[in-house]
Each structure stands twice: as C-alpha cells, then as structure tokens.
User: Fold this.
Amino acid sequence: METKGYKYFTWFNNVFLILLALACLFPLIHVLALSFSSSSAAAAGEVMLWPVEFTLSSYEYVAAKSEFWRSMFVSFQRILLGGTINFLVTILLAYPISREPKEFKPRTFLAWFLFMTMLFNGGLIPWYIVIKEAGLLDTIWALVLPNAVPVFNVILLINFFRQLPKELDEAAYVDGAGHWTILWKIYIPLSLPVLATVTLFSLVMHWNSWFDGLILMNKPDNYPLQSFLQTVIIQQDLSMITSGDLEGLSEISDRTLKSAQIFLGCLPIFLVYPFLQRYFVKGIVIGSVKG
Amino acid sequence: MRSSQLPLYLMVIPGVLLVLIFSYGPMLGIVIAFQNFIPAKGLLGDQEWIGLDNFLYVLELPNAFRVLWNTLYIAILKIIFGLIVPIAVAILINEVRVMSLKRTIQTTIYLPHFLSWVILGGILIDILSPSEGIVNMMLGWVGIEPIFFLGNNSWFPITLVGSDIWKEFGFGTIVYLAAITGINPELYEAARIDGANRWKQTLHITLPGMRMVIVLMAVLSLGNILNAGFEQVFNLYSPQVYESGDIIDTFVYRIGLMEAQYGVAAAVGLFKSVVSCILVSLAYYLAYRFADYRIF
Assistant:
C-alpha cells in the first residue's frame, strides 16, 4: 500500500522532528550541565550536555544567599495569595455572567465590560500611576490585585458553564436551592478539569511574572524570584549576589552561578510540567477553537 | 419559580471593583498624555493641561520613527513565521505513525513556552555569547567567525524573531493538531481509494481541513502588529542594539519610568493603545465574519 517514497519520507520526517525536539531541549540541558561543572571546565568550553568536573559548589553558593531565599519566599507568597484570589474572582464572575439575561439582567453589559479590557488598555504609565496612587508600591498586593481578574480565564469558564445542561439547575431550583448552593454543589464539582486548567494558567502567570515586581517594588528585598533573577542574570547586577567574594573560590564563576540560578528558576515549572501539559493543551483547545 | 437575583449581584462585586480600579482606572489615566504631569500632585490633582505638546515633542525626537519601524518590522516577521512554522510542524507531526514518538515530540516542543523570558534570556545570553557561547563554539568547528547575535544590529532582529519562534512554535502547533484531529477520517479513506498518495491527501484534505483555524489564527494575530514582544526585547537588548531593537514598549519604559517624563511616555503609550484597539477590534470582527468566531 505505502510506496517506497513514503517510507523514506516517514524516516526523514521522524529524524527531522526528533532533531527539532532536541533543539528545544539542548539549550536547557547545556545550562544545567554548566551549573554542575567547575568554573575552569566551563571557561575552557569543555561542557556540552554533561557536567565536567562535577561539583555542587554553585548551588551551595546560591543556597547560602539570603537574597535568593527571600525572593523565593515572596514568590510563594505571591502564588498562594494571587492564585487564591484569581480562583475566587474567576468563579464569582463567571457564574453570574453565564446566566441567561432574563435571570441576570446585567449579564450582557458585564460581558462587554470585561471584553473591553481586552480591546483597550491605558498603557504602562497610567497603570503604574494608578497602582502607585493606590498606595500599593512595595507591598505584595501590588503583585496580586492588578492581576486579580484574569479575563481570559473568566471567559473560558463562562463558556464552560454555559454548556452545562440547564436541567441540572432547574431541578435544584425546584428543590429550593439558591444560587450559592447551585454554584457550590453543582457547577464547581462539574467543572473541576476546567478549574484545574485556569488555576494552572494563573499559577504559572504569577510564577513567571517579573516586570511588575521590578517596577512596583522599590526595595529589592521585596522582589519575587523572577524579578530577582532578572537583576542578577540579565542586568548582571553583581552587587546583589557576588559581593566580591568570588575571587577566592576556584570552583564557581559568574557563569556557573547564573546557570544554577536559571535552573532553580525553572525547577517549579519542570515539576508541574506533566499537569501543565495535560491541562494547558485542553484549555487552549477549548479557548481558541470552541464550536 | 426563580430564586432571587441578589446573590448574583453580590458575586460580581469583587471582580467588577478590581476591573474598575486596575483596568478602567488606567484607561482614564491616559489624560496624563495631555498634561505636564507632576506625580506629586496626583492623578486627580491640579495638573497643567498642555494639549498635544507631548505628542509633538515625541515626533521631534530623532529616533521616534526608528522605534516605530523596528516595532513593525519585528512584530510582522514574528506574525508571519509564527503562523507558518507551527502549521508546517503540525502537519509533519500528524505524519508520525509511532504514537509514543509523537507524544514525546509534542511534550518536548511545548516546554519552552512555559519558561519566562528572564530564564530564556539568561540561557540565550549564555549560549549566544561570542566569546564562550556554545553556539559560536559550534560555528567555529565549521570555520565560521563568531557572530555577536545580541550585539550586532544586523543580527539582533533575526535573533529576536528566531528565538521567539523557538519558544512558541511548539505551543502554536496545538490548535492546528486539534483541527487535524477533527477532520473526518472517511475523507482520507475515499482519497486513498481514488489513488491519492500521502502528499495529495495532505494537499487536498489536511490543509483544507485546517483552513478555518488558519484563517482564524491569521486574523487574530493582526492585533499584534504593534506588539514586538516587550518581555523578550527587554531581557535581550542593550544600548548598542537600540538602533535595530528598540521598540515602542521599551521606549515607553525608558522615557517614562527611567527618565520620569510621564506625560511624554503616556502619549506614546496612548498612540499604541489606540492603534492596537482598532486592529484588535477589526481582528475580532473579521474572525466573527469569516470564521464564525465568538468569544462568548
């Protein structure tokens, strides 16, 4: 059935795609290998995909830095607080807006009210001024409240709620259940996979955000991890991590240290990746090509 | 018998308030663009209104048009390759018959999407370094002189587009693969009976089957013509590549937050927001007309 030409194609195609996948992984593995290598091996260009002169010194050095742990703590605080607020606000907006207009008159208005924010925004400067004047600078709330309403997630959940069978809540009405009960006892249990999707969206967003931390926190003590890493890895602000005491240490260099921090910065993403992959794919498909 | 609407009103209050303050607040805050804004007086304070002076000031800056050009150039290249590459890769992935291989490839190419530009910026700065980066080391093996990808104005935009595609192409394949999965298998059956080979099947069944999604993605990407990718550029650029890599968003950041010329920066931001708003609205309208796409 299949021709010889097609067999060759399949072979080339598989090899090509494997190379493409490796191209996505190699830079990450290379940096990981660097982080476990000695500085001299890294400087001599001996490190490819496997550590040379294996050492944990870079990690020990980073682990001894209080700035690193402090920013890690801010990040976890942000994720916990931001994730919870996102979760609650998303559900509480999606349920009423998913009702028919005859059940909840302002539904259409509210849908447009949210949609408008996807069309137009005030831009960076007015955004910054508003947060500043709200007195949120240098507080954890500056990282949480402006991001409290993930509009895309709300829309995803509205669309999901709307395709749940109407008979379910009709029956609950008859039994005398109010909206809170219906939301809590019927809608939430039925939408656990979608809720997992939007929660992961929001957790990853909070973990990966760095720019707001950078400009909304005046004191580096308040930086979340990604903002801290931005100053250390990208701006090469050496004052923050290598306070001149690198000279005496032969095993580590600026380069191996950065590699170690890069790896630690994406470690949580790697850990949740199996879930991410499963739910994100589902979410993106529901979100972009819905019936 | 309907239960009371009151709980529904109570539910939306927190979300509506937050959106009002942090999304609509800044929309009203664009008045800064028409003021000689002094932060100490506050948004509602007695600011001096100066009409279009901020806009005229920007137009006289020597690099204003350079920045606009860079933004368009980088963004349009990203849009074009951001469409073509995922479509091509999705079609190729669909041809993989070994299921475990197919899944492994997918899992791997989605990964870079989930890492922040701080992380990827750090990685790129290391591997692209002309002195010790692994990429230039490998180029050296085949006798190519080191290339300063992040410091040379002819290479910088190419590096931006290339690394953006590298980060996002895998994730971009998801919607196309979903579209391919939705194609009726009987169509392929019929084509095989008519003697169509794999290539003909791709050309006459797979591609037409993806047509709607391709149109939709193309139309929706229209809204990104002024989005050259702030997070990426901010982490990769340096003064020596401002000429080719400075974009509207980085320009606004430097004028506004570094030099504290709030009014001027807000004016540039307003220009971007208005143009983007028109483009995004047009994109949604076209998507609605031609792909029957509705957000709600």
Summary: Chain A touches chain B through 105 residues (CB under 8 Å). The mean pLDDT of chain A is 89. Chain A has 14 helices and no strands. Residues 55 and 85 of chain A are 41 Å apart (CA to CA).
